[in-house]
Structure formats: structure tokens, C-alpha cells
Specification:
It is built from three helices and no strands. By secondary structure, the chain is mainly α. The chain has one domain.
């Protein structure tokens, strides 16, 4: 689909530096895929609920030793 849009140049340059695409089309497609992935993960994690986690440094060290 062909679309003409105005994009903030600073935002475009920052995205280009992070994603390193070969073309503007690739930049937009990668950006949209990442946005969709991020939102799906956010929605999925929201469905899982929250678990209270009360760990001490000692607990973490023991868990690391166990593997």
C-alpha cells in the first residue's frame, strides 16, 4: 500500500540508528513489527496477573548456586 506521510526527522533518524534498516520501507516495517510485538507482550503479561515476590540477596545467591 502506498501512503505519503510526514514523519518527524529527529524521530526517523533515531529509529534508523537503532534498527539499521537498508530502506525506509524496512524501517517502517521493522518499527511496526516491534510495536505490535511490544503491545502483545504487554497485553499477555497483563492477563497473567501479578505474583508478590519477596526475595532477599541470600535467596538469589542460593538460587544461582543451584543452577
Amino acid at each position: 500500500m502506498r501512503t505519503t506521510i510526514d514523519i518527524d526527522e529527529k524521530l526517523l533518524k533515531e529509529a534508523w540508528a537503532i534498527l539499521r534498516p537498508k530502506t525506509k520501507r524496512e524501517l517502517i516495517e521493522k518499527s511496526l513489527r516491534e510495536l505490535i510485538r511490544h503491545e502483545r507482550l504487554k497485553r499477555f503479561s497483563g492477563r497473567l496477573g501479578k505474583i508478590p515476590l519477596d526475595l532477599t540477596l541470600r535467596d538469589l545467591k542460593q538460587m544461582r548456586r543451584r543452577g
